Amino acid sequence: LKPSMCLSAHESCFVNSLADIKVGRLYAGYIKEVKEFGAIVCIGSFRLGGLVQRHQVSSKFVEKPSDELSAGQSVRVLVGDVDEEKQRFSGDLRPSAASAADAPLLAREAVALRTLLEQREALATTSLGSKAAKKRFSLLAPGSVLDAVVTEVKNFGLLLSLPVREGLTAVCLKENMPESFRTQAGASIKCAVLDFDPESGIADVSLQPELLGVASTSSSVASGGQKRKKKNSDDSQAQPAVLHVGLQISVLPALQKQTYSVLWCKDPPCVVFAPPFGSKSWAEPRPTTVQSVPDADSCGEAARVVVLCPQGSREKKEGKVKVPRILRPEEELQVGSPIKMRIRAIHGLQVFCTAPVGLRGHVHASQFLDLGAVGSGGESPLEGMRKTGVIEARVLRMQQRAAGVEDTESHGGKVWHLELTCRPKLMEPQDASEYESEVVRWSSLKPGRLIAAAVLSVQKNMLWFEVAPGIKGRVSMLDASAVQSVVRSLAENFHVGQVFQTRVLRTVSSQKELDLSLLPEVAENGGKKNKGKPQVILAKLQKVEEKVGGKGMVASFRLPERKRATAHITELFDVWAKQPLKRLKVGTIYEVVLLRDWNEDAPGLEGRAEVSLRPSLVHGQKESEEEKRPLSTKDLMVGQKVSGYVINSGPAGVFVGLSRSL
């Protein structure tokens, strides 16, 4: 009763004897029996069995064939050889590119899929009723664009709810989302239906922008059955693609089911279905031909466009790139020499590689990028890097060490270890001194030096960076960014593996301490730059005095670069608040303006800067006459009304702070 076998019999392709089998040809078949070593397949009569070894079940490693195959499952078989003595043949179920001689097989596969979909529609109509089935499936026809709400973000993609029908769940796999797409739970988005399983009530959807641009209720319309546009409709709105039998289109993979493959096309944008016997995935669009389109009255699984199994070029396996043998490293290599090595592993922030004979090398993540100003970067060079392959680099440093147990190739019991770089500017020939200067040592980490560093870990109040293997430094939250929202949520804006250009603030090599910054140096001379405008920086409030005293300094702050600062009571707010100190909260990050830097001499404030939190200075807001702070007696006149805060009081009188200097 299998449609594929019935069609084979109808076209006289049903195999009844070994003499009918041609080696190297593809055949429609089915699984007769699943064994531990593989499977027994039939391509016609059940009396003729073909042996499929376990490694030929799939293009990926299969531990248990029963996890991939089941008895009765339809398959496509590539015949390897025929053993007339044992009355059996060998088969291969791995995806194989069809030749021109296999064209009739491709057509039979597509017709068999169409038959299967029609049979499923008949069952759904019987169980649900014709009207109910049409209503349910019309809303979820492949290619339909629906509103959805993200319910959960998973490692494999998204879980969504579809308001179009209560209790309806949708799944969007990562491969069906644009690479740059980011979202969160609760977000409202649009999605395009790929497939719907009426038994589970789960729909598979896509977020590809080409599919979302089709404002239609169906993925395609048969030739001559295009829906009429509504009057006064927007002509710029995308219309359903008109597909017809024989049309050539190029498709990409979306989903792989056991009985069919779901594919999608960019031009015209549509969702189509194909037999499941081709490659499971491919990067570039592959050509195929429309084999059948649904009738106007079709609904459910029968209302789908079926195409031939896509036949691109056979998936090319990258040839194993040869790594040159280096027999005498001490003679053939020197600092700056180009070298080609095979990647052995990627661990932490390093790529470990090898080369014959007895060569070991490592490249730190910071040695992959050319960076500019401090704070630039943010790329993750190790993300997505293949753990097998060949890397081209240049030598920064060479050391010979004792060989380990695993080092079977060595020079007199010793192995050469190479520190490498892949920075584009260093891949061009340079003087040896240029390469030597790129080697990071504790002694070379002087304050002010710009150096590439990779994020090692992200904590609540700081970032840990690694500038070289074994040399790590910290970046305080205030030195991570000049943007308040970023500083408040470091974990949302930084991740392990990112590489940035950092600036050295302080080193204590004896204690292995290194402080770094992602910000330019804070300007001195009162922070004045950019045509006299004060420089706005971030500061963390560390302490608020319980009582106002002395010169009216009431708040202590931590600044970038491990600097300290104080604020006068008159520089907290523009308005004259009754209890200004109660409005401050220790631990809060504030935007402040430098009024006096830490190098200016001020009695009692040695080594500390002076800052202001006033919005008129920080944000340039206009202040009223009453809010202006007089900085000298020249700004005052007898009889003028003034405002201020009580600094001190005693027998001699009440001392009022009118400003930080008066």
Automatic annotation (TrEMBL):
<dbReference type="InterPro" id="IPR003029">
    <property type="entry name" value="S1_domain"/>
</dbReference>
<feature type="domain" description="S1 motif">
    <location>
        <begin position="24"/>
        <end position="94"/>
    </location>
</feature>
<dbReference type="GO" id="GO:0006364">
    <property type="term" value="P:rRNA processing"/>
</dbReference>
<dbReference type="GO" id="GO:0032040">
    <property type="term" value="C:small-subunit processome"/>
</dbReference>
<dbReference type="Pfam" id="PF00575">
    <property type="entry name" value="S1"/>
</dbReference>
<protein>
    <recommendedName>
        <fullName>S1 motif domain-containing protein</fullName>
    </recommendedName>
</protein>
<feature type="domain" description="S1 motif">
    <location>
        <begin position="448"/>
        <end position="519"/>
    </location>
</feature>
<dbReference type="InterPro" id="IPR012340">
    <property type="entry name" value="NA-bd_OB-fold"/>
</dbReference>
<dbReference type="GO" id="GO:0003723">
    <property type="term" value="F:RNA binding"/>
</dbReference>
<dbReference type="InterPro" id="IPR045209">
    <property type="entry name" value="Rrp5"/>
</dbReference>
<dbReference type="Pfam" id="PF23459">
    <property type="entry name" value="S1_RRP5"/>
</dbReference>
<feature type="domain" description="S1 motif">
    <location>
        <begin position="143"/>
        <end position="208"/>
    </location>
</feature>
<feature type="region of interest" description="Disordered">
    <location>
        <begin position="218"/>
        <end position="237"/>
    </location>
</feature>
<dbReference type="InterPro" id="IPR057302">
    <property type="entry name" value="Rrp5_S1"/>
</dbReference>
